[in-house]
Write a structure and sequence with these properties.
With about 150 residues, the protein is of the alpha/beta class. It contains 6 helices and 4 strands; from the N terminus they run H-E-H-E-H-H-E-H-E-H. It has a 4-stranded mixed sheet, sandwiched between helices.
Length: about 150
């Protein structure tokens, strides 16, 4: 019985990790909006093709995975990832949710990144471009956050 319980626990943890976005990123839109409202932090929405889009992979590697960005985001943002992978399966409900986000927010191509309020209203233009690395990206986010507080 203990073996069965441990096996189920490991399976549950593995499944949860497989369905989650990258570290710190939510994949449930409603949960991200609720957390944004509760913590009074804007949402950073990242529409990405994590396993096929070269620019998406680049922004993940050069910006989103960097410690400075992770620290800044943890303190100032609710991160939401809507992923459109080609090589990995997603549950039907997640695909449906992400398709709705894509229809509403995609700005021509991937990655598309916006700052949004807790209701999903855009607080920025698409900020999915890489210019100047992590420090420049954080500076841009700080500038945008300053404007949203005015």
């Amino acid at each position: 019985m203990k073996f069965l319980f441990k096996s189920l626990s490991i399976l549950t943890i593995s499944t949860s990790l497989a369905l989650a976005g990258g570290e710190g990123w939510h994949t449930d839109w409603e949960a991200a909006k609720a957390k944004s409202k509760a913590e009074n932090k804007p949402i950073l929405l990242n529409l990405t093709g994590s396993d096929w889009c070269g620019w998406c992979i680049k922004i993940e590697k050069e910006i989103f995975s960097q410690k400075a960005f992770k620290d800044f985001a943890a303190e100032n943002l609710i991160q939401m990832e809507a992923d459109f992978p080609k090589k990995k399966e997603q549950p039907a409900e997640l695909k449906k949710q992400n398709a709705a986000l894509e229809k509403q927010y995609l700005a021509g191509g991937y990655p598309t990144v916006y700052l949004l309020d807790s209701e999903g209203k855009k607080l920025s233009e698409d900020i999915g471009e890489l210019k100047g690395g992590t420090d420049a990206y954080i500076a841009k986010l700080k500038e945008l956050l300053g404007k949203t507080k005015e």
